[in-house]
Amino acid sequence: MTQPIDLIALDLDGTLLAADESVSAVNRAAITRALKSGIRVVLVTGRGADTPIRVSRELGLNLPVICCHGALTKDFSANKVLNHVPVPLEYAKPMLEFAERTGVHVAVYAEEMFWRVTGSHVYMQDMTGPGWREVPSLLEALKFGAPTFIRFLGTPAVTAMQREFGDLPLAYLTETWNDFIECVVLSRDANKKNALARLCADFQIPSEHVLAIGDSRNDVPMLQWSGIGVAMANALPEVRQAIHYVTGSNESDGVAQAIERFCFAAEKKSA
Asked: Does a structural domain hold residue 1?
């Protein structure tokens, strides 16, 4: 007999969000039903804080958001950072100095916003949005302390970073979209699994009572830690193979399908 679900952890991109970054009406209804039945719902994403906070508010969620690949947990209702696991300055500073010296493309997430060098290449449309700040030198981002994470953008930057800094005791997350590649550099202690486990401990929810849904490599440890981990149909083959359960795609309400199956299927049988 499966354990009852007390908390649902949802990745955003490729999971809850469709390609146009919307949340479908079917997924919204499933989340609302879960909330009304007393199940907590938390967003766990690689994104910076702004998008998960916006989506949480739209969905009526009242839990903190876990963002930045698990490096930052924020109680947005109280505007309070609950946990921050940054890249140590002893590693971050040489990386940014190297990028400045060689001209490779880098972005830094610090003080809950992205920083990029003025006039640098725009790889994605959102890089000109309000969540980004242009500065003459990325070292300006370090005046607030250690950054949350660093993004090396494009093949030359990723190759140079791996050559110069690949042996440092840090976490490296490589992502590829079509012909674009980037590598996110984090503290080794910063990941979705650790952040979710910490949040669940605060609410005294054991892992057996957690349903987690995701699609990316950085979701796998979180999905394996949870009592029920579910991979999206659109996940990479290696992700689907690592996880016992697979649901529909992010374009076919896969989140709602998983919530229905693992939170409410017993109600149907007893009806």
From this structure: no
2: in domain: no
DSSP 8-state class, residue 15: T
Which residue range forms the structural domain that includes residue 218? Answer: 7-84+190-270
What stretches of 28-148 adopt beta strand conformation (E)? 40-43, 65-67, 72-75, 80-84, 106-110, 113-117, 132-135
Look-up of token digits 């949005």: 129
- pTM for this structure? 0.93
| Per-residue confidence band for 2, with pLDDT thresholds at 50, 70 and 90 | low
Sheet order of strands, 228-231 included: 40-43, 7-10, 210-214, 228-231, 245-246
Measured CA to CA, the distance from residue 2 to residue 17 in angstroms comes to 27
Q: What confidence category does residue 267 fall into, taking pLDDT thresholds of 50, 70 and 90? A: low
Q: Note whether 80 and 208 are same-domain residues.
A: yes
